[in-house]
What we know:
Blueprint: E1 4-6, E2 18-23, E3 33-37, H1 38-46, E4 53-56, E5 59-67, E6 69-73, E7 76-80, E8 84-88, E9 93-96, E10 102-109, H2 126-129, E11 137-139, H3 142-159, H4 165-187, H5 191-194, H6 198-214, H7 222-228, H8 232-243, H9 247-265, H10 270-276, H11 282-293, H12 297-305
Parallel strand pairs: 2-4
Antiparallel strand pairs: 1-2, 3-10, 4-9, 5-8, 5-10, 6-7, 6-9, 8-11
Amino acid sequence: xxxxxxxxxxxxxxxxxxxxxxxxxxxxxxxxxxxxxxxxxxxxxxxxxxxxxxxxxxxxxxxxxxxxxxxxxxxxxxxxxxxxxxxxxxxxxxxxxxxxxxxxxxxxxxxxxxxxxxxxxxxxxxxxxxxxxxxxxxxxxxxxxxxxxxxxxxxxxxxxxxxxxxxxxxxxxxxxxxxxxxxxxxxxxxxxxxxxxxxxxxxxxxxxxxxxxxxxxxxxxxxxxxxxxxxxxxxxxxxxxxxxxxxxxxxxxxxxxxxxxxxxxxxxxxxxxxxxxxxxxxxxxxxxxxxxxxxxxxxxxxxxxxx
Length: 307
Protein backbone atom coordinates (compact mmCIF):
# COMPACT_ATOMS: atom_id res chain seq x y z
CA UNK A 1 0.00 0.00 0.00
CA UNK A 2 1.39 3.35 -0.98
CA UNK A 3 2.14 5.47 2.08
CA UNK A 4 2.59 8.77 0.31
CA UNK A 5 0.17 11.06 -1.46
CA UNK A 6 1.15 12.87 -4.62
CA UNK A 7 -0.55 16.21 -5.01
CA UNK A 8 -1.39 17.35 -8.53
CA UNK A 9 0.16 20.79 -9.12
CA UNK A 10 -2.09 23.52 -10.40
CA UNK A 11 -1.79 24.16 -14.17
CA UNK A 12 -0.05 25.43 -16.13
CA UNK A 13 2.73 22.93 -15.48
CA UNK A 14 6.32 24.20 -15.65
CA UNK A 15 8.82 22.68 -18.01
CA UNK A 16 10.33 20.59 -15.21
CA UNK A 17 7.34 19.91 -13.01
CA UNK A 18 7.92 19.22 -9.33
CA UNK A 19 5.33 16.96 -7.73
CA UNK A 20 4.62 17.69 -4.05
CA UNK A 21 4.56 14.44 -2.06
CA UNK A 22 3.01 14.20 1.39
CA UNK A 23 3.39 11.35 3.83
CA UNK A 24 -0.11 9.93 4.07
CA UNK A 25 -0.23 6.44 5.61
CA UNK A 26 -3.65 4.81 6.03
CA UNK A 27 -5.31 5.22 9.40
CA UNK A 28 -4.70 1.57 10.13
CA UNK A 29 -0.91 2.17 10.06
CA UNK A 30 0.03 3.60 13.45
CA UNK A 31 3.80 3.16 13.58
CA UNK A 32 6.23 6.08 13.45
CA UNK A 33 8.59 4.28 11.06
CA UNK A 34 7.99 2.56 7.73
CA UNK A 35 10.68 0.40 6.12
CA UNK A 36 10.40 -0.52 2.46
CA UNK A 37 12.76 -2.96 0.76
CA UNK A 38 14.24 -2.05 -2.62
CA UNK A 39 12.12 -4.67 -4.44
CA UNK A 40 8.90 -3.33 -2.92
CA UNK A 41 10.02 0.24 -3.64
CA UNK A 42 10.51 -0.67 -7.31
CA UNK A 43 6.94 -2.00 -7.42
CA UNK A 44 5.52 1.13 -5.83
CA UNK A 45 7.43 3.47 -8.10
CA UNK A 46 6.39 1.52 -11.20
CA UNK A 47 2.74 2.29 -10.39
CA UNK A 48 3.27 6.05 -10.25
CA UNK A 49 2.56 7.75 -13.57
CA UNK A 50 4.92 10.42 -14.84
CA UNK A 51 7.35 9.86 -11.99
CA UNK A 52 9.96 12.57 -12.00
CA UNK A 53 11.10 15.33 -9.67
CA UNK A 54 9.37 15.30 -6.29
CA UNK A 55 9.37 17.59 -3.28
CA UNK A 56 8.74 15.72 -0.04
CA UNK A 57 7.32 17.05 3.21
CA UNK A 58 8.79 14.27 5.35
CA UNK A 59 12.14 12.73 6.29
CA UNK A 60 13.39 9.61 4.56
CA UNK A 61 16.57 7.60 4.48
CA UNK A 62 17.82 5.41 1.62
CA UNK A 63 20.39 2.76 2.53
CA UNK A 64 22.16 0.73 -0.18
CA UNK A 65 23.35 -2.77 0.69
CA UNK A 66 24.40 -3.97 -2.77
CA UNK A 67 24.80 -2.75 -6.34
CA UNK A 68 25.03 0.80 -7.66
CA UNK A 69 22.40 3.50 -7.49
CA UNK A 70 22.18 7.21 -8.30
CA UNK A 71 19.79 9.68 -6.73
CA UNK A 72 19.37 13.42 -7.33
CA UNK A 73 18.83 15.64 -4.29
CA UNK A 74 18.68 19.42 -4.72
CA UNK A 75 20.68 19.65 -7.96
CA UNK A 76 23.37 17.20 -6.89
CA UNK A 77 23.49 13.63 -8.15
CA UNK A 78 24.85 11.15 -5.63
CA UNK A 79 26.48 7.91 -6.80
CA UNK A 80 25.75 5.27 -4.20
CA UNK A 81 27.32 1.88 -3.62
CA UNK A 82 27.03 -0.67 -0.82
CA UNK A 83 27.16 1.18 2.48
CA UNK A 84 25.84 4.48 1.12
CA UNK A 85 23.17 6.27 3.11
CA UNK A 86 21.11 9.14 1.70
CA UNK A 87 19.21 11.43 4.06
CA UNK A 88 16.41 13.43 2.44
CA UNK A 89 14.94 16.26 4.51
CA UNK A 90 11.46 17.82 4.30
CA UNK A 91 11.30 20.42 1.54
CA UNK A 92 14.11 18.94 -0.51
CA UNK A 93 13.64 18.26 -4.21
CA UNK A 94 14.72 14.78 -5.28
CA UNK A 95 14.43 12.25 -8.08
CA UNK A 96 14.80 8.48 -7.96
CA UNK A 97 17.43 7.00 -10.24
CA UNK A 98 17.60 3.59 -11.91
CA UNK A 99 15.87 1.26 -9.45
CA UNK A 100 16.92 -2.02 -11.06
CA UNK A 101 20.53 -2.46 -10.02
CA UNK A 102 20.64 -2.10 -6.25
CA UNK A 103 19.28 -3.55 -3.03
CA UNK A 104 18.62 -1.93 0.30
CA UNK A 105 15.90 -0.04 2.13
CA UNK A 106 13.89 3.13 2.11
CA UNK A 107 13.10 4.24 5.65
CA UNK A 108 10.39 6.87 6.14
CA UNK A 109 9.99 8.34 9.58
CA UNK A 110 7.51 10.74 11.07
CA UNK A 111 8.76 14.09 12.29
CA UNK A 112 7.55 13.11 15.76
CA UNK A 113 10.66 10.97 16.06
CA UNK A 114 12.68 14.19 16.20
CA UNK A 115 10.94 15.21 19.41
CA UNK A 116 12.23 14.34 22.90
CA UNK A 117 11.67 10.75 23.88
CA UNK A 118 11.06 11.55 27.53
CA UNK A 119 9.12 14.50 29.02
CA UNK A 120 11.78 14.80 31.72
CA UNK A 121 14.36 15.82 29.10
CA UNK A 122 12.81 18.85 27.35
CA UNK A 123 15.79 19.32 25.04
CA UNK A 124 15.67 15.72 23.90
CA UNK A 125 18.53 13.61 22.69
CA UNK A 126 21.04 15.65 20.68
CA UNK A 127 21.26 12.91 18.04
CA UNK A 128 17.55 13.18 17.33
CA UNK A 129 17.62 16.95 17.26
CA UNK A 130 20.54 16.94 14.83
CA UNK A 131 19.24 14.71 12.05
CA UNK A 132 19.03 17.82 9.89
CA UNK A 133 22.70 18.59 10.60
CA UNK A 134 23.81 15.40 8.85
CA UNK A 135 24.98 15.65 5.22
CA UNK A 136 22.84 14.21 2.43
CA UNK A 137 25.26 11.37 1.64
CA UNK A 138 27.22 9.32 4.17
CA UNK A 139 29.26 6.20 3.40
CA UNK A 140 29.44 3.47 6.02
CA UNK A 141 31.89 0.58 5.97
CA UNK A 142 33.20 -2.34 8.01
CA UNK A 143 31.54 -2.98 11.32
CA UNK A 144 29.36 0.11 10.97
CA UNK A 145 27.88 -1.19 7.71
CA UNK A 146 27.27 -4.62 9.21
CA UNK A 147 25.60 -3.10 12.28
CA UNK A 148 23.48 -0.83 10.11
CA UNK A 149 22.20 -3.73 8.00
CA UNK A 150 21.52 -5.79 11.11
CA UNK A 151 19.57 -2.90 12.66
CA UNK A 152 17.45 -2.34 9.54
CA UNK A 153 16.68 -6.04 9.26
CA UNK A 154 15.69 -6.11 12.91
CA UNK A 155 13.49 -3.01 12.53
CA UNK A 156 11.78 -4.57 9.50
CA UNK A 157 10.88 -7.63 11.57
CA UNK A 158 9.82 -5.62 14.62
CA UNK A 159 7.64 -3.26 12.57
CA UNK A 160 5.67 -6.28 11.34
CA UNK A 161 5.01 -7.67 14.82
CA UNK A 162 1.46 -7.65 16.13
CA UNK A 163 0.94 -6.26 19.60
CA UNK A 164 0.81 -3.03 21.56
CA UNK A 165 1.37 -0.10 19.19
CA UNK A 166 2.88 2.11 21.90
CA UNK A 167 5.44 -0.54 22.82
CA UNK A 168 6.26 -1.12 19.14
CA UNK A 169 6.81 2.60 18.60
CA UNK A 170 9.02 2.81 21.68
CA UNK A 171 11.11 -0.06 20.34
CA UNK A 172 11.36 1.49 16.87
CA UNK A 173 12.25 4.91 18.27
CA UNK A 174 15.15 3.48 20.22
CA UNK A 175 16.35 1.49 17.21
CA UNK A 176 16.07 4.64 15.11
CA UNK A 177 18.17 6.52 17.68
CA UNK A 178 20.87 3.88 17.31
CA UNK A 179 20.88 4.33 13.52
CA UNK A 180 21.20 8.12 13.76
CA UNK A 181 23.96 7.77 16.35
CA UNK A 182 25.86 5.47 14.01
CA UNK A 183 25.47 7.98 11.18
CA UNK A 184 26.91 10.74 13.34
CA UNK A 185 29.85 8.51 14.23
CA UNK A 186 30.36 7.46 10.61
CA UNK A 187 30.36 11.10 9.56
CA UNK A 188 32.74 12.01 12.35
CA UNK A 189 30.09 14.25 13.87
CA UNK A 190 30.42 13.19 17.47
CA UNK A 191 30.31 16.83 18.59
CA UNK A 192 26.52 17.02 18.89
CA UNK A 193 26.60 13.88 21.08
CA UNK A 194 29.38 14.81 23.43
CA UNK A 195 30.41 18.44 23.28
CA UNK A 196 27.45 20.64 22.39
CA UNK A 197 25.16 21.58 25.24
CA UNK A 198 21.51 20.58 24.72
CA UNK A 199 20.38 24.22 24.92
CA UNK A 200 22.79 25.10 22.09
CA UNK A 201 21.40 22.28 19.97
CA UNK A 202 17.86 23.44 20.73
CA UNK A 203 18.74 27.03 19.75
CA UNK A 204 20.18 25.78 16.45
CA UNK A 205 17.09 23.71 15.79
CA UNK A 206 14.77 26.62 16.56
CA UNK A 207 16.75 28.86 14.21
CA UNK A 208 16.65 26.30 11.42
CA UNK A 209 12.91 25.74 11.82
CA UNK A 210 12.20 29.47 11.93
CA UNK A 211 14.42 30.13 8.92
CA UNK A 212 12.52 27.53 6.92
CA UNK A 213 9.36 29.61 7.37
CA UNK A 214 10.83 33.12 7.29
CA UNK A 215 13.89 33.06 4.99
CA UNK A 216 11.95 34.85 2.24
CA UNK A 217 11.06 37.67 4.61
CA UNK A 218 14.06 37.91 6.96
CA UNK A 219 17.39 38.00 5.13
CA UNK A 220 19.37 39.30 8.14
CA UNK A 221 20.27 37.32 11.28
CA UNK A 222 19.06 39.90 13.82
CA UNK A 223 15.29 39.20 13.40
CA UNK A 224 15.89 35.52 14.08
CA UNK A 225 17.91 36.26 17.20
CA UNK A 226 15.12 38.51 18.49
CA UNK A 227 12.51 35.89 17.70
CA UNK A 228 14.46 33.16 19.50
CA UNK A 229 15.37 35.45 22.40
CA UNK A 230 19.15 35.50 22.15
CA UNK A 231 21.92 37.68 20.79
CA UNK A 232 23.28 37.42 17.26
CA UNK A 233 26.57 36.29 18.78
CA UNK A 234 24.85 33.46 20.68
CA UNK A 235 22.98 32.38 17.58
CA UNK A 236 26.19 32.28 15.55
CA UNK A 237 27.81 30.22 18.28
CA UNK A 238 24.97 27.68 18.05
CA UNK A 239 25.17 27.33 14.26
CA UNK A 240 28.97 27.10 14.34
CA UNK A 241 29.00 24.41 17.04
CA UNK A 242 26.32 22.27 15.44
CA UNK A 243 26.77 22.86 11.69
CA UNK A 244 30.18 24.60 11.46
CA UNK A 245 28.72 27.61 9.61
CA UNK A 246 27.50 31.05 10.64
CA UNK A 247 23.81 31.85 10.83
CA UNK A 248 24.21 34.21 7.87
CA UNK A 249 25.82 31.46 5.80
CA UNK A 250 22.87 29.20 6.55
CA UNK A 251 20.40 31.89 5.45
CA UNK A 252 22.32 32.60 2.26
CA UNK A 253 22.50 28.90 1.41
CA UNK A 254 18.75 28.53 1.94
CA UNK A 255 17.97 31.51 -0.30
CA UNK A 256 20.28 30.23 -3.05
CA UNK A 257 18.74 26.77 -2.87
CA UNK A 258 15.20 28.11 -3.19
CA UNK A 259 16.25 30.38 -6.04
CA UNK A 260 17.73 27.38 -7.88
CA UNK A 261 14.58 25.37 -7.31
CA UNK A 262 12.36 28.12 -8.71
CA UNK A 263 14.66 28.75 -11.66
CA UNK A 264 15.00 25.09 -12.60
CA UNK A 265 11.51 23.80 -11.89
CA UNK A 266 9.15 26.68 -12.69
CA UNK A 267 8.60 29.04 -15.60
CA UNK A 268 8.31 32.08 -13.32
CA UNK A 269 10.06 35.20 -14.64
CA UNK A 270 13.13 36.29 -12.72
CA UNK A 271 11.31 39.37 -11.44
CA UNK A 272 8.61 37.16 -9.90
CA UNK A 273 11.23 34.88 -8.31
CA UNK A 274 12.96 37.95 -6.90
CA UNK A 275 9.67 39.07 -5.38
CA UNK A 276 8.91 35.63 -3.94
CA UNK A 277 12.31 35.55 -2.26
CA UNK A 278 11.83 38.94 -0.64
CA UNK A 279 14.22 41.10 -2.68
CA UNK A 280 13.11 44.70 -3.15
CA UNK A 281 14.48 44.87 -6.71
CA UNK A 282 15.21 42.18 -9.30
CA UNK A 283 18.62 43.73 -9.86
CA UNK A 284 19.49 43.08 -6.22
CA UNK A 285 18.42 39.47 -6.58
CA UNK A 286 20.57 39.06 -9.71
CA UNK A 287 23.58 40.58 -7.92
CA UNK A 288 23.03 38.29 -4.92
CA UNK A 289 22.68 35.16 -7.07
CA UNK A 290 25.72 35.99 -9.19
CA UNK A 291 27.83 36.69 -6.10
CA UNK A 292 26.93 33.39 -4.49
CA UNK A 293 26.94 31.11 -7.55
CA UNK A 294 29.26 32.82 -10.06
CA UNK A 295 26.48 32.79 -12.64
CA UNK A 296 23.35 34.81 -13.34
CA UNK A 297 19.82 33.47 -12.76
CA UNK A 298 19.19 33.42 -16.50
CA UNK A 299 22.39 31.50 -17.21
CA UNK A 300 21.60 29.00 -14.46
CA UNK A 301 18.09 28.42 -15.83
CA UNK A 302 19.38 27.93 -19.37
CA UNK A 303 22.01 25.45 -18.17
CA UNK A 304 19.48 23.42 -16.16
CA UNK A 305 16.97 23.35 -19.03
CA UNK A 306 19.63 22.07 -21.40
CA UNK A 307 20.73 19.21 -19.17
